[in-house]
Structure of Lipoprotein:
Amino acid sequence: MRALLALVVACAATGCYQDKYNVNGPKVEEYRLPPDESRYNEPDKATYRAPPAPKKEENLRDRNKQGPGGGLGGF
């Protein structure tokens, strides 16, 4: 029974290893630039579309082109 208890204690001690002293140190992220090729430097021309022209904003004053008293119902 003591041997079984010693085995359980040994497994628990080795199975719960934590790096509390941070032996490996922090990992530094390395940045790599893409190769100097035209496919990376220039945008795709087949999928590029120019932005649409801005639309004219209408307001209530410009909307009524029939003049005063015109339109449906005489309003």
